[in-house]
Design a protein that fits this description.
Layout (H helix, E strand, L loop, with lengths): L6 H10 L1 H8 L3 H7 L4 H5 L3 H10 L6 H21 L15 E2 L10 H8 L4 E4 L5 E6 L6 E7 L10 E3 L4 E3 L6 E2 L5 E3 L8 E6 L5 E5 L15
Helix pairs in contact: 1-5, 2-3, 3-6
Length: 226
């Protein structure tokens, strides 16, 4: 009875209800775990320390409510741990990624004049925020490059989209999603538009990407990726 209220006692209780946890983790759900909670007959064959742990908790094996209370409590604690994190605190909001100078496929920093000469009026994929792939877009109204970039990951399952120059659209090679030149969904199964990033030039005319956290100019909505 020295285990009462101690960490060792908790481990003993968890061992006694291990099969309840297995059922819960494999999708059997709380009702199944409660239905299979060990009763009096099961306890007769259980190790002595499991029986001692039950007596420590002051639960009467004859009381059906007490037999169901512990699996329910463990299930609730497990769900809380998954939802709140290992520290028992709510997950914090996403932190905006740090600005980064875009790099080409050879890890060279992208300079706007060189990019314009190499790609002209065709979107080109570069390495951007957090090392993710982004499309730099050709400028409009005489500009060299647009002040917005599109993340190249399809919003369905994350495949990299390709630019179809003939159709003027981005296409996903995995499941057929199609986006227009600004990343709006034209055909599913993609559920959302392509994520955005701001594009600016450094003093040395290098292309720098920064996080887009303000309103999505395409539909005036809050950015889903921020």
């Amino acid at each position: 009875l020295s285990w009462c209220g101690s960490t060792s006692w908790l481990k003993v209780r968890m061992a006694c209800h291990a099969r309840c946890f297995v059922l819960l983790l494999f999708g059997a759900g709380l009702p199944t775990a409660v239905a299979f909670a060990p009763g009096k007959a099961a306890l007769r064959g259980a190790p002595r320390h499991c029986q001692m742990a039950r007596r420590c908790q002051g639960q009467d094996s004859q009381d059906p409510k007490s037999r169901r209370a512990m699996p329910a409590a463990f299930a609730s604690a497990l769900v809380s741990t998954i939802l709140l994190g290992s520290q028992g605190k709510p997950a914090s909001a996403k932190k905006a990624p740090a600005p980064v100078v875009a790099q080409d496929q050879w890890s060279n920093e992208v300079k706007v004049n060189e990019w314009l000469q190499a790609h002209g009026d065709v979107p080109d994929m570069v390495v951007g925020l957090k090392g993710d792939p982004y499309f730099l877009l050709p400028g409009q109204d005489g500009g060299a490059i647009r002040n917005v970039a599109l993340r190249a990951e399809c919003t369905h399952l994350g495949c990299l989209v390709n630019w179809n120059q003939a159709l003027g659209k981005f296409e996903c090679p995995c499941h057929g999603s199609v986006y227009d030149a600004e990343g709006n969904v034209l055909r599913g199964p993609a559920p959302k538009s392509l994520a955005l990033a701001h594009v600016e030039l450094t003093e040395t005319q290098k292309v720098r990407l920064t996080a887009w956290t303000d309103e999505d100019f395409r539909d005036q909505s809050r950015p889903w990726w921020a």
